[in-house]
Specification:
- The chain has five helices and no strands.
- It has 160 residues and is an all-alpha fold.
- The chain folds into two domains: 80 residues; 46 residues, no CATH class.
- The two termini are 40 Å apart.
- Pfam families: Tim17.
- InterPro entries: TIM22.
- Keywords: Membrane, Mitochondrion, Mitochondrion inner membrane, Protein transport, Translocation, Transmembrane, Transmembrane helix, Transport.
- This is Mitochondrial import inner membrane translocase subunit TIM22.
Length: 160
């Protein structure tokens, strides 16, 4: 048995692919680094974050006001319904942005073959443009610039 307790982490253990029976750690890492895996995973994570954020902001929103003669239970149900709708809208938005940005950045990184600071504004601009194109060319261009600046700042302070 391997010194890692038989979990295949240090090599020679069960499930590390050395005997041909299982997926090796390197193969699993390669799959997780694939753009077609990273983008949907980022979208799902973005949806989760957006849902939580939307639930919090939707529940403290002032759009839902008490109606005269309405019980607390009915008001709570209406508030919860509004928060749920707001949460779903935010989840879709965050998920879409996460998937588009991560996929774009991944393919830009693969194209250049390195993680560079210049990848962030390229991916940010493309993502911002794609997300805002339905609002017109001026909005898409402004969104491109905003996403490029924001993603560059984040990558500069956190990524490098």
């Amino acid at each position: 048995m391997a010194s890692d307790g038989g979990f295949g982490v240090s090599g020679g253990g069960a499930g590390d692919g050395a005997e041909g029976g299982g997926v090796s750690q390197m193969q699993a890492q390669d799959v997780m680094q694939a753009c077609y895996v990273k983008a949907p995973l980022s979208g799902v994570a973005g949806m989760g974050l957006g849902a939580v954020f939307g639930l919090i902001t939707g529940s403290i929103n002032n759009e839902v006001t008490a109606v005269a003669g309405e019980s607390k239970k009915e008001f709570f149900k209406r508030t919860l319904k509004h928060a749920g709708q707001h949460s779903w809208r935010m989840a879709k938005g965050f998920g879409l942005i996460g998937a588009i940005y991560t996929g774009t950045e991944c393919y830009v990184e693969k194209y250049y073959g390195a993680h560079r600071l210049a990848n962030a504004p390229i991916a940010g601009c493309i993502s911002g443009f794609v997300i805002a194109i339905r609002a017109g060319p001026a909005a898409a261009t402004a969104s491109c610039a905003g996403f490029a600046a924001f993603s560059t700042a984040i990558d500069y302070f956190i990524g490098h």
